[in-house]
Amino acid sequence: MQTTTPPEAATMQMHQTTGQSKKPTALEQAGGTKGLVYSALPVVAFVVANNFGGLGAAIIAAFAVAVAIAAARLLRKESLQPALGGLFGAAIAAGITWYTGSAKDYFLIGIWASLAGSVLFLVSVLARWPLAGLIWNGATGKGTVWRQDKRSRFYYTVATLFLAVIFGARFAVQQYLYAADEVGSLGFAKIVMGYPLLAVGLLVAAWAARASDKRLKAVGLLPARGA
After folding, report:
1. Which DSSP string corresponds to 157-179?
2. Residues 46/104, Cβ–Cβ less than 8 Å
3. Contact 62, 45 (CB under 8 A)
4. Do residues 55 and 103 lie in contact, with contact meaning Cβ atoms separated by under 8 Å?
5. Which residues contact 31 (CB under 8 A, 6 or more apart)?
6. Which of 77-98 are b and which e, b meaning 16 or more Cβ less than 10 Å from the residue's Cβ?
């Protein structure tokens, strides 16, 4: 009968636990750095094609690039989730643009989605359920214990307000460019104020989560590390 020594058993358990608990990060779920670059390509294609070939060419170019990205991911057996999301978004935006006949309407959904996001974050703060805390702790399985501590709520309130400002700034800038018919500048603003700004917001949310966890462990609402 084969036996396993305690050190070997501990090592095996550690590897098993690591394999079971390892989950893809938000960046990995979005397709990694490559996925973030891919998300900007349909916008670039739309703006460039609109400048040289007009609205019809722009719609075809943006949708064709989105389809090509999805096909490339499929052939490489990469995650299709970000590709399909981009393809769906490009199709809706192209449909609206074709219907209205105005190139700037390609960005219409994103503009109003930014306003909706900003309002949602602000409302969650007013309701004392800051959305940054709900999303982060929901994703990490910690529930709502953070709401029992005033300081933890403050950390997440700061992060939520920061995200509200980001989404509000997106709306303000892009709505101004939309009203001015600046299609090229709209495309640039959409790319620059998209994932790069969101990454900054996620860093603030991560700071809030670390500060909250440290506080909750200090007051006994979360178990201390190693306990």
Report:
1. HHHHHHHHHHHHHHHHHHHHHHH
2. no
3. yes
4. yes
5. 38, 39, 73, 78, 79, 81, 82, 83
6. ebbeebbebbbebbeebbeebe
Average pLDDT value for residue range 195-220: 91
Sign, CA dihedral 159-206-124-88, equals positive
Integer Cα distance of 175 and 168 in angstroms = 10
User: Do 107 and 93 meet the contact criterion of CB atoms below 8 Å apart?
Assistant: yes
The DSSP code for 219 is T
Q: What is the percent of the chain with per-residue pLDDT over 70, rounded to a whole number? A: 80
Q: What does the radius of gyration of the chain's CA atoms come to, in whole angstroms?
A: 22
Average pLDDT over residues 40-67: 89
Least reliable range by pLDDT among 7-21, 64-78, 141-155, 212-226? 7-21
CA nearest neighbour of 162 among 121, 124, 192, 114: 121
Residues constituting the chain: 227
